[in-house]
Specification:
This protein is of the alpha/beta class and 311 residues long. Helix content is 41%, strand content 16%. It has a domain of 211 residues: NAD(P)-binding Rossmann-like Domain (Rossmann fold, 3-Layer(aba) Sandwich). The chain is globular. The termini are far apart.
Length: 311
């Protein structure tokens, strides 16, 4: 099977290509210089020329709270255009299979946890990442419409919880929480700082899954598609448990051997108070994540030391 993978240089894409099952497929992995996903004609021409059997759309402009708040226009426009171009041009070229990677940012800020797939579009989004969430909703709905109009096509969306892992971004300006915390605590330990700052009171709860587990789930879904299994239009992919921000800081400190204290800046934004997704659909079909938190942090820190921190 020939698979066009967008975002192959990102965390999800690289973990997918590193997975033990990747060798059984032919992956097309154009870089952003080789294929500009914001250029509709370029996307159309590439798909028509290379004729993939499946598209996995994992590309996107991503970042943490600071990045989303600084440029909501960019997050909305760029992610919307990428999703529409990749998914619709695959449809126009009669590509039978598509896996769209979405985000739990699509869920309403006031929705009751755990978040179920049918809650999408039932309330207003979290303002700190609304633009990104709207773009992901657009791509998700497009997949649904295509499958509804064309029963022979299997276009489904996976909605992972927060991710971390190898190939993550550790830049404080655009990283997600766990890699940002790893870098912050590493630098505090190296500088022998007595304390590390946490935004807010640290009691907001988040669900984080190791990115290698998401790659494992994607290959499980690919096999179901190849066997023409009927799939739901959306499936949450998570670990079915969450922790407070304070607990994540402590877990990273445990792995890195940092013994300082934590102080809270109550003036800083924290986003949603809880974001735990209901992964019963994918779990009932036999798949579950297998990487414990401390082990995932250790692997991520090893990657940071080897690939990022060269000082």
């Amino acid at each position: 099977m020939r698979i066009l993978l967008t975002g192959s240089s990102g965390m999800v894409g690289r973990n997918l290509l590193e997975h033990r099952s990747a060798a059984g497929f032919e992956f097309l992995i154009p870089s952003s210089h080789e294929l500009d996903l914001l250029d509709r004609k370029a996307v159309s021409d590439y798909i028509l020329e290379n004729k993939p059997d499946m598209v996995i759309h994992a590309a996107g402009r991503v970042g943490g709270i600071q990045a989303n708040m600084a440029d909501p226009v960019g997050f909305l426009v760029e992610n919307s255009l990428m999703g529409i171009h990749v998914i619709n041009e695959a449809h126009q070229a009669n590509v039978k299979y598509c896996i769209n990677l979405a985000s739990s940012c699509m869920y309403p800020r006031q929705a009751a946890n755990p978040l179920k797939e049918e809650m999408v579009l039932t309330g207003e989004l979290e303002p700190t990442n609304e633009g990104y969430g709207l773009a992901k909703i657009t791509a998700t709905r497009l997949c649904q419409y295509i499958s509804q109009m064309n029963p022979s096509k299997i276009y489904t969306t996976l909605i992972p919880c927060n991710l971390y892992g190898r190939h993550d971004k550790f830049d404080p300006l655009n990283s997600h929480m766990i890699p940002a915390v790893i870098r912050k605590i590493h630098e505090a330990r190296e500088a022998e700082l007595a304390s590390v700052e946490i935004w807010g009171d640290g009691e907001a709860r988040r669900e984080f899954m190791y990115a290698g587990d998401l790659a494992d789930c994607i290959f499980t879904v690919i096999e179901k598609m190849r066997n023409d299994r009927a799939l739901p239009p959306m499936m949450n992919v998570g670990i079915a448990t969450d922790h407070t921000i304070n607990e994540y800081y402590q877990a990273v400190a445990d792995v890195l051997g940092y013994e300082g204290e934590f102080v809270h800046d109550l003036e800083k934004p924290v986003g949603m108070r809880q974001k735990l997704i209901d992964s019963s659909r994918i779990h009932s079909d036999g798949w579950e994540a297998t990487t414990p938190l401390h082990e995932g942090i250790r692997r991520t820190y090893d990657f940071f030391l080897k690939e990022v921190n060269h000082d």
